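Hello Y.,

Per our agreement to keep a running log of every chain we model this quarter, I'm adding this entry. I've kept the format consistent with earlier entries: sequence first, then predicted structure.
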Amino acid sequence: MIRQDGENGRRWSIGTDGMSPLEYATRPPKADDVYEKLKHLIVTLQLAPGSAVNEQELIRQLTVGRTPFREAMLRLSHEGLIVRAPRRGSWVSDLSITELQQLIDARCFVEPLVTRRAAERIAEPEADKLMRIVDAGEHAVRQHDVETLVWHDLQFHSCVAQLSDNQYFAAFSKKIDTTLLRYWYVSFLHGGDFSDSFAHHQLLADAIASGDPDLAEERAREHVEIFRARIRNLVS
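Predicted structure for the entry above:
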C-alpha cells in the first residue's frame, strides 16, 4: 500500500488483518460526523490507499445523507486524503515513500520552530493540558491501542502547534501531521515497539513546560528523527 517510487514500480504492501472495527456515535449524521467516520476508515486503512471510493456503498454503510457525505469528501480532498477527478470519480490517495520523505523533511523544519515558540509562550494552564495529553497517550501505550495512539499523537502535536500562537505555523503543522496520520498508523501497527516515541512526548512536554526554548527545539528535532528511524527500519 505504500508505493515504492522508481522505474520498476515496486510496492510495499501492508496487511490490514486484525484491525478492530470502528464504533461510531449515534448522533445525527452531519457533515462533521461523516468526515470523522470517513477519516477513521482512511487512517486505519480500512479504506485502502489507492482504492476507489464507492459513494453509494459508503453512504449505505455509514447511514448518512448524500449532501453531508460529499461535503466530508471535499474536506478530505483538501487534506490530501482523497483524490477527486472529473469523470473519473474519487479514490483514497496512495502512500508514497517519496511523499513520506518530503513530509519528514518538512516536519524537520516546522516542528522545532513551533516547539521553540511554544516554550517561549507557554503558561501553567497550557502546560497542564499538555501533560494530560501525555498521560492519556501513555495509557494507550500500555493498552497497545494503536487507533487511539494515532489520535493522541495528533492531539499532542496540534496542542504544541497552537501554543506557538501563530495561526499560519499551526495550520502548516496540522496539514503535515494530518497527511502523516496513515504513516503513523502503519509505523505503530507494524514497526514493533512504539513506546520510545511516546516516552519522548514526556521529554518534549517537559522541555516546553520549563520555558527553555533551546532545549524544546532540540527535543523536537530528536522527536522527528525517532520517527524517521522507525520508518527507515520498517521500510528496510
